[in-house]
Every structure is written in C-alpha cells, then in structure tokens.
C-alpha cells in the first residue's frame, strides 16, 4: 500500500512539473542564468542578467525582472539560433547602444537571419538606437550599402556615448510616436 501511495505521489509530482512547464508563467527570477538575457516574462517585462558579490567575494549571477515592458511579446525565451544570428551574448551583464558602433555587431544585427527572424532582439536594439536618435532600419540600410559610412554617420549623429543623464529607462512604447517599429511586427 505504501509503495502504491509513494508511486502515486511521484507520478503526481512529475505530472505537475510537466503541466507547470506547459501552462506555467515565465518568471525572470525562476529562469536559469544561461537563458535569462533576451527573455520576456509573462508580465511582458524584459528579463536581465545581474551580478553580485557573495559574502566570500565570489561573483554570482541572477536573473531579474526589469521595468522595461515589451508591448507585443510576453512569455518569450530567445532561441539560441537568434542569439547566434544576431551576435549577442547571453552572459553579458547589461546592454548598451555602444555595440551599435561596432561594425561587426551591426552587420550581424542587420543581416536577414537576425533582422527578419528575431523580432525580440531587433525590438530591443531598435529602442536602444531610437534612444540615441538613430532609426535602426535606416542604419541597417546604410550599413548594407556602405558599412564605413554608416558608422561615420552614426558617430556624427550624436549617437556616440555622451554624459549619463538621470532620465528614466525607456519602454518599448516610448518611441512609438517618433519612429515606427520594424516592418515585421
């Protein structure tokens, strides 16, 4: 009898894990650190990877929920194919528009494998570029025709890193009136 009850409990537990995985919510704090970056919680907020020092001085990583809301996506964990195609790194802490100044990164972000197939990553960099006064579709078009000129134009547009301001972080919707989203949305 005890064996039957134990087996039933194990079966129930296994089934509940399966059901939670299929019907459960994506909660950033519950994600493993190797899939945290470029994921979106069920709430529609982006997940971000943070590091902290432990009491013994070691650096640990944790996944947290940011305040940045993605309007058209929720419960999304970016694929390894998109991470590779777009040239992003899940293990980096924080994100910056500075990467748009790197020709190799911009080439990967603007390539069709990334730009047409990875709307989550493109949306993120679209908003970062818009925050710097740059329209990502135009930057990608200039990069395709003349990569060096695109970088010079980006630098001369004032999008180069400048002093830090106290402005609050932008959400995906903050730039919708200024510039339309990429055409695949």
Automatic annotation (TrEMBL):
Please name the InterPro entries in this protein's record.
PAR1
Which key words are in the record? Signal
What superkingdom heads the lineage? Eukaryota
Which positions carry the signal peptide feature in this UniProt record?
A: 1-24
Which Pfam families does this entry report, sorted A to Z? PAR1
Identify the stretch(es) annotated as Disordered. 163-185
**Which PANTHER family does this UniProt record tie to the protein?**
PAR1 PROTEIN
The name under which this protein is listed is PAR1 protein
Q: Which species expresses this protein natively? A: Camellia sinensis var. sinensis (China tea)
Classification lineage: Eukaryota, Viridiplantae, Streptophyta, Embryophyta, Tracheophyta
